[in-house]
Write a structure and sequence with these properties.
With 338 residues, the protein is of the alpha/beta class. The protein is 37% helix and 13% strand. 28% of the residues are buried.
Length: 338
């Protein structure tokens, strides 16, 4: 009899059960080309994305975890053929310069010391020869924001994720960037009279030429900033953004999402969807939790020892199934199950 269990809790008896592991669900496949392809955009989302494109304004997307804020950026990039999404994951320590560029001054100093010419004893002063000045670009890499502002015919897609986690000053620091669409790299501007063009590395590991230490966008990037609504932003920042509040999907929308990810299995999934909607009324749940539960139902229900097995009139099996589903649908804002 084939068990649904890959791991059996018997490390003293090793086996090759991992070979039976099925293909992962599509939301856990790490193929950037396919990300966003199953996104189910609603009318208000389509309208505000288009408004942001027309107005060249950032779009601040607010919503509970799991409502699709991040995926929206990938869906836009996929549909409009705008290339790889440039992603900046915000933490409490994130600064504007990290988003723009990084200069490895220590690495440059170490390389200068190692390549020091003992004969003429250039030493650290060798760093300031014209030849070595030209090599400064090897130690500069643009961040996701800096790369998004590079001149291009079509806008790049920039995702600034979880903006509400940022330091209190970061939203205000972004104001001038959003307004002017340009920034300066002081390390390159200082030597622009000697070497006006420097090649640097971009966030997506390409090479680009910076002229006179300045980056000026040609097409303002399509910027999505996401927020879980855990803080308020200053009015000056909000004035420069369009705002979209992603509501939780309705029952019909959940069915469409399930179909897009897992095919036409609503008959099998109907009870789990109903349970998800009822539980969501009492606490925070994310849509991918529903997808997780239905994936487990459809992939293991035909195996004799699966907790998802159709229980028929067996009350004990039905209780086991309900308990397993509840474990997959634990509330996000509580310590339930911990």
């Amino acid at each position: 009899m084939t068990s649904w269990k890959i791991f059996r809790g018997t490390p003293e008896k090793s086996h090759n059960g991992i070979e039976r592991l099925p293909e992962p669900p599509n939301w856990r496949r790490f193929d950037k080309e396919e990300r966003g392809i199953t996104y189910q955009a609603r009318g208000e989302e389509i309208e505000l994305v288009n408004a942001a494109l027309y107005l060249r304004r950032p779009l601040l997307v607010t919503g509970k975890p799991g409502t699709g804020k991040t995926t929206l950026a990938y869906a836009v990039a996929k549909e409009l053929q705008l290339g790889e999404v440039l992603r900046w994951n915000i933490t409490t320590r994130s600064t504007l310069q990290q988003g723009l560029y990084r200069y490895d001054a220590i690495g440059r100093l170490q390389d200068a010391q190692m390549s020091q010419d003992k004969k003429d004893n250039l030493g650290i002063m060798g760093m300031y020869s014209k030849k070595n000045l030209a090599e400064i670009g090897k130690y500069i890499q643009l961040g996701s924001l800096g790369t998004a502002l590079l001149p291009s015919k079509n806008p790049k897609v920039l995702l600034i994720d979880e903006m509400d986690k940022s330091d209190i000053d970061l939203p205000n620091d972004l104001l001038n960037i959003f307004e002017e669409g340009e920034f300066e790299i002081p390390e390159l501007a200082r030597i622009a009279d000697k070497i006006p063009e420097i090649v640097v590395q971009t966030y997506d590991n390409q090479r680009t030429i910076i002229v006179e230490g300045k980056v000026q966008c040609q097409a303002f990037p399509f910027v999505i900033l996401t927020s879980n609504g855990e803080r308020e932003f200053p009015p000056a920042f909000l004035r420069r953004c369009l705002r979209l509040d992603l509501r939780e999907p309705t029952r019909d929308e959940l069915e469409a999402i399930v179909k897009a990810h897992l095919g036409d299995i609503i008959g099998q999934a109907d009870k789990v969807i109903e349970k998800f909607v009822n539980r969501r009324d009492k606490g925070d749940l994310a849509t991918d939790q529903l997808l997780n539960a239905i994936y487990m139902l459809t992939r293991t229900a035909d195996l004799p020892d699966s907790p998802m097995l159709d229980s028929g009139d067996d009350q004990e099996k039905e209780q086991k199934k309900e308990k397993f589903i509840e474990r997959l649908l634990q509330y996000l804002s509580s310590t339930e199950g911990i």
